[in-house]
Amino acid sequence: MCGIIGYIGDTNVLPILINGLHRLEYRGYDSAGVALLNENRLYLQRAAGKITALEQKLPADAPLSTIGIGHTRWATHGVPNEANAHPHCDCHQRLAVVHNGIIENHGVLRQELIDKGHIFQSQTDTEVLSHLFEEYLASGMPLSEAVRQGLLRVQGTFGLAVIDEETPDYLMVARNGSPLIIGHGQGACFVASDTAALVGLTDKVTFLDDGELAILSRNGVAVKTIDNRSVDTRVEIIDQNLKRIEKAGYPHYMLKEIMEQPQTVEDTMRGRLLEEECTVKLGGIGNDIDSLLYARRIILTGCGTSWHAALIGEYLFEELVGIPVEVEYASEFRYRNPIISEDSVVIAVSQSGETADTLAAVREARRKRCKVYGICNVVGSSIARETDAGVYLHAGAEIGVASTKAFTSQVTVLALITLLLGRMRSISSARGGELLRELQQIPQKIERILQQHEQIRALAEAYQDARNILYLGRGYQFPVALEGALKMKEIAYIHAEGYPAAEIKHGPLALIDKDMPVIVIATHDSIYDKILNNIQEVRARNGRVIAIATEGDQEIKKYAEHVIYIPDVLEPFAPLLTIIPLQLLAYDMAILRNCDVDQPRNLAKSVTVE
Ligand code: AGP
């Protein structure tokens, strides 16, 4: 997703912009640019490709300035090249705009502006904004009013920042559907698409809401709505834990985030386990637990990895709490007119808390007047702020595009909610204690699996030329099979499919031959014998099986060519362990195949557009 950084203050802006853009790289992008004001002249520099390409184009004597904006572009309209890179200017290169989102009515506006004589330089929807603001500036309006009037004509989503060479004392920002955060400094203001770009600059922030714009000056911030109503400036304090967004010596964020899962799962549980009562305490959702406890139906919704975590939540809630659950892709839920009533509860699962489809699903559910909760990682994110209550993951910033620690923390939160609700229904204190103690052991069990990384790397070397891989699991392990396949697809670019193991008889068995590696999650659980049968069905057709199995299982060696062992664990919590080797396998395959692990092609960390 596009990234925005902006600054006005008393310090040279260019290093602030470049460093901020590097902090936003993880969002995924294909071009970058900056614009700044120097002696009331607009200076613009853009480049296709990585930020380093932009840095190489910046002259050593780049103008000094104390106001500017920067952008990393993830192409929606127009190919990734310099002409389509942001910032975009008006006809006279007086103002510059950076934008994240989609201007739905850009075609109509573009034609209207062309008919008025505007000359467009790019294929982007964004450039419409710069010419629209130019129109209103030309009528004599100040920048703040010109931007506000222009935005009243816009349909669609935006997070944007605007500077104007004739307005050196402030810059404009506005938000509708794409996150934008204002940072408050000493005699300075910042704006960024997410808090990662503000770490080390300020911990005082204002999360703009949809329909709001703000004037950022050296004297502070003034917020109002696009329809011209004043708004109090809400200042919050964010986690300034710089080390959490650095690589800490690892070659990639993804590996760091895989390796820190013992700690992040621990952090997710910290302060939430009540050992004496063999239950859990949760703020947010916990303060409104009866809505969940007496829900006629729970709908879990999300996208990608979060949807996989939600699937595990379905198995947990239905087995251990006894409440009917449905899991919906947010992109489907938002458009299919779901039948939900006031005694339904919707839980949105989202690491970023900004995924457009999931946010839209939240809004659709609220329109249907049922309770809506959020399970998010990013504090103050849109979904966190637009749901009735929620539970934060406390997993720290997840920078790698491929979600890893967020997944295990999402499943941990779902397990905590399960234990809380279950202990209010049919789970005894003895069973509750058993589940709670198992959760407490998960971090150290993850650690034991991580210590097998060398063995998993050897496996990756053996299969690095695979062109297709099948992942099979049953019960709680079926969503893990899906998640393992997604990891392999998105960072090693290998076609991989997750399937319920029993389903292979109904078609996929035709794919099996010696060139189709089959990864089977075959841990000791209630359906172990059934999964062994599935493995034998694969072996009978010369399939090559890699098994994820429980430590001590010698039987599995008769059927699997390779076995990765995980510690024994209670079945409901096994996904927290079985996903670990699959994360590492995808990571190692991607490295061997020279893929860009942290910023895989075509993908973004937070998909804030449809
Ligand atoms: C997972 O590795 C991907 N990065 C992607 O599927 C992601 O899970 C999905 O876009 C949802 O993101 P969210 O959790 O931030 O809503």
Give the low-pLDDT segments.
none
Mean pLDDT: 93
Structural class: alpha/beta
What top-tier CATH class of the largest domain fits best? Alpha Beta
- The H-level CATH homologous superfamily of the largest domain, spelled out, is Aminohydrolase, N-terminal nucleophile (Ntn) domain
* Ligand identities: 2-deoxy-2-amino glucitol-6-phosphate
The counted number of beta strands is 27
User: In this structure, how is the largest beta sheet organized?
Assistant: 8 strands, antiparallel
- Count of DSSP H/I helices: 18
Helix content: 25-40%
Spatial sequence of strands, sheet with the most strands:
3-2-4-1-10-9-11-15
Basic shape: globular
CATH topology of the largest domain: Glutamine Phosphoribosylpyrophosphate, subunit 1, domain 1
Approximately what portion of the residues adopt beta-strand conformation?
15-25%
Number of domains: 3
CATH architecture assignment of the largest domain: 4-Layer Sandwich
Distance between the termini: 11 Å
Spatial extent as radius of gyration: 25 Å
